[in-house]
Predict the structure.
Amino acid sequence: MTPTRTIVPPTSVVKTMSPGTHDGGGANPLLVVWRAFATIWSVPKARIGLALLGFFVILAVFAPLLAPYAATDNTFGRSEDMSPAHWLGTTAAGQDVLSQIIYGARVSVFVGFVAGLLSTIIAVLIGLSWGYLRGPAGEVINFIVNLFLVIPALPLMIVIAAYLQNGGIGMIVLVVVITGWAWGARVLRSQTQSLRSRDFVTAAIFSGESPSRIVFREILPNMTSLIVGSFFGASTAAILAEAGLEFLGLGDSTTVSWGTMLFWAQNSNALLTGQWVLLFAPGLCISLLATSMSLINFGVDGLSNPRLREGAKR
Amino acid sequence: MRYTLSKIGLLLLTLWAAVTLNFLLPRLMPGSPADAAIAKLAQNGPVSPSTRAAIEAQLGVPTGSAWNQYVEYLNNVVHFDFGVSYTFFPQSVASLVGTALPWTLVLVGFVTIVAFIFGTLLGVLAAWKRGSWLDTLPTVGGTFASAFPYFWTALLLLFFLGYVAGWFPTSGAYSSSATPELSVPFLLDALYHSILPATTILITSLGGWILGMRSTMINTLGDDYVTFAEANGLHPRTVAIRYAARNAILPNLTSFGLALGGVVGGSLLVERVFSYPGVGYLLYTAVVNQDFPLMQALFLIITISVLLANFIVDILYGILDPRTRR
């Protein structure tokens, strides 16, 4: 694997390439993704994370094949303990807990992926231009981002969810994205600000490159790990926020998800009856899914800094 | 000085925008408080027009043009007059918020500062001893713990230590027999009740600080001046603390300002599980009962605290990093 490769884009005339353009130009996107995957896979902790994430994705995609019963089938005995027929017992409403766990993966994986991706795209666009521009334009963006930051995410989501009684998954994704992009933008701005004064950026300015090219072709590749990191960060936050809303009973409580399972567990007094699996299993799944993303983040260090790749000394 | 002045100007501008947004938000949403109250009444039988008029008058449904409402709203905010709560009628919103705020500020503020200090130190250590058990233990443990949903950690602690073991009280901020006063027995009682909520927040938030500090620290460790300092034969501890950590703490400080402000709102789930009488629990109660005045006031309080925290961090950032002042 070659850590750095400079490819002159076919359209540009011969031009000095700066160290910022690692994977730019005509590189095959699939190849870039594959190399990124291999870099992350080479870190043991991240490998566990990828495997764990893969497990939940498979669970979500093939839920109808894997679940022993339908998630909403409530024809079983109520609040049963673990048995061969119901590995994790049944809920107070007589549904199979294991089937609900398997179907619940769908909501969390979907919300995490979609909301995380949308938040990251907005964060990259705003964070990089904000960090690069000086003067009044930077101040205007600063003002807008601050506005989005001062609105605390969870309370805002709760208030909106309370107004839109029983809003669905789409509403949750929308609110998570509206409240979730600003954090990433701010982190990416800090890094852009410090990269802005590096020599390769100065060189690019003197060679007459346009600001958008400098930001997205010179600076952006140096921040790949931060960007990938902020995607997984945003996904984790989205998954936790979604579960939190459903736990408070503010989502659509008829949806089968890990959050609603905890909501019904608390409302059917699982705390008092001692049916701890009902509390333990959904929360553990949320934690494991979120952990898998954090573990993958250990592997992204090496994406933009070859010196940090596995086997390389500090 | 110019930097500080421009930040103060920005603070005032953002404050105004946040207050305005707070005014607009409930009005952009469908439904009205009187409709909600009437819907509740209608479950028991038909509601006559005179009852409806009485309810609208009692709930203080805003009248007049949007501009007049806005001017009146601004005037009320400046005088800390947030109206009367629908849920806790006839208590004023300001007094309700005033009772709830100290509980949240003390509990969550204190725990967050402790978590920030310990988390940052552990993060520095983890990045410096990269690959050793000093790295693996806090990072893997912190990663897993920070992935716990707040309410799940709270539920588990409540179930195992509260209900099963019976070591700690299961709800409230003090015993129902005690009256809030500044005495040693009461403070001890409050402290005893705060152990489970505090532990929940500490467990769940510590990991974030460790990981954040570790990753920024690793970035600075790749910088040339650190290699240069090492090549100069400086003591490893000097290189780690005086060179790398000093620069790595800047991005982490930015997150601290936001987290500290968000703490007031973030405690909501924990307070809900433990029925802890803070701002979060009050907001939950307000939302469930569609108590608009209370909800708006709480929202404003949370927003202002985030603003102030950010302002302080911005000023600190300017002092610590001279480059931003240019």
Q: What stands out?
A: Residues 59 and 219 of chain A are 38 Å apart (CA to CA). The radius of gyration of chain A is 23 Å. Chain A touches chain B through 60 residues (CB under 8 Å).
